[in-house]
Amino acid sequence: MSFEEMWAALEPVGRRPDGGYDRFAWTGPELECRAWFLDEARARDLEVERDANGNLFAWWLPESGERGDAVLTGSHLDSVPGGGAFDGPLGVVSAFAAVDALRAEGFAPGRPVGIAAFAEEEGARFGVACLGSRLLAGAIDPARARSLTDGDGRAFADVVAAHDLDPDRIGPDEDLLGRIGCYVELHVEQGRALEVPVGVASAIIPHGRWRLDFAGEGNHAGTTLLRDRRDPMLPFAHAVLAAREAARRHDSVATVGKVHIVPGGVNAIPSLVTAWLDSRGPDDAAVRATVRDVHEAALRAGADHRVAVTLAEESYTEIVDFTTALRDRIVTVLGGAPVLPTGAGHDAGILSARVPTAMLFVRNPTGVSHAPAESAERDDCLAGVRALAAVLKDLARG
Ligand code: GLV
Ligand code: MN
Ligand code: MN
Ligand code: MN
């Protein structure tokens, strides 16, 4: 199957009427994407592996049958709510297409070439970004992962158990990690930073997610006097504005993109507002200062309105500097390419703590991501495939 045919097969999966994608880990559309991955792997006689954390791998083994020192590529197939088509799938489809291109020219790898589809990269269902790669790399306590719940209160442990994974076996897999010689993830660029078809990542800026709970008192919207109210919506609103101000002050970014209101009635003062803060910045200190300022503003407003405010960190990723030697080698293979940092998180950022890691970016003409307008031109995607094939060939030669 060509790149275009693979793309066309995936395109309708989980697509909403507004053009955005809902492919949440272990739900129908994401399971369809997984089935697609396995079909593509089997159609190419690649060896399929699902690890204890639900990450998928397709291995092209060398003649020798050697399994170690693999060159791994790939990305993820899940999406944010209403996400774009490219974030994740572009890296997986490009990986299969790059393997096809290498086979078509008769290349025989001297090291295994693997294609990965990491589970729950976006954390859209269980809240922790890159959950599959974090578990694999030992970057999250398996006990904590087991107890994560989705929006319907279903525990991660129960959900994966329903898909034939043993929840007691999730966690770091030293055998699998030991087989990965390096990881190169191709991804659509997610801002306006790339002006040529293909670039190479230098770094991922520090980023994290925090949960803010504002607990007030539910009551009637018509009969409750203003002075009697303990309305959690008010300190929540202060926190949103404080996030913008704090980000401005600390040269960071801060986003409140998800909020849950209990009970959510037009004519009821809420009893509880839960909001999630995403903050990223040039360094640890900037992000920490941003979150601290938002927390303090929320506590102050909470005290004014007799609302209890709590803050909990859900995930945090320190700055990731991709392996310089690997990055330089890739730039050389590509005959030169822009090297740029990103504000988006990736499984590559998690794996980089354990194996040499690099990323290729494909230009995004709209500069939009995590939304339906996310895009990449067909010719740029094909340039990405050619770049990835050249990199895999260089890294996997005998
Ligand atoms: C993932 O794409 C993220 O940066 O949140
Ligand atoms: Mn994303
Ligand atoms: Mn992604
Ligand atoms: Mn303003």
Automatic annotation (TrEMBL):
Positions annotated to bind allantoate: 209, 267, 280
Pfam families with a match to the protein in the record: Peptidase_M20 (PF01546)
Cofactor: Zn(2+)
GO molecular function, one term: N-carbamoyl-L-amino-acid hydrolase activity
Binding site for Zn(2+) 2: 87, 122, 370
Listed InterPro entries: Amidase_Cbmase (IPR010158), Bact_exopeptidase_dim_dom (IPR036264), Peptidase_M20 (IPR002933)
Gene3D superfamilies: 3.30.70.360, Zn peptidases
Alphabetical UniProt keywords: Hydrolase, Metal-binding, Zinc
Record text on cofactor binding: Binds 2 Zn(2+) ions per subunit.
UniProt keyword Phosphoprotein present: no
UniProt binding sites for Zn(2+) 1: 76, 87, 187
Enzyme class of the recorded protein, top EC level: hydrolase
EC number(s) recorded for this UniProt protein: 3.5.1.87
Family: Belongs to the peptidase M20 family.
Stated name of the protein: N-carbamoyl-L-amino-acid hydrolase
Organism this protein belongs to: Actinomadura namibiensis
Taxonomic lineage from the root: Bacteria, Bacillati, Actinomycetota, Actinomycetes, Streptosporangiales
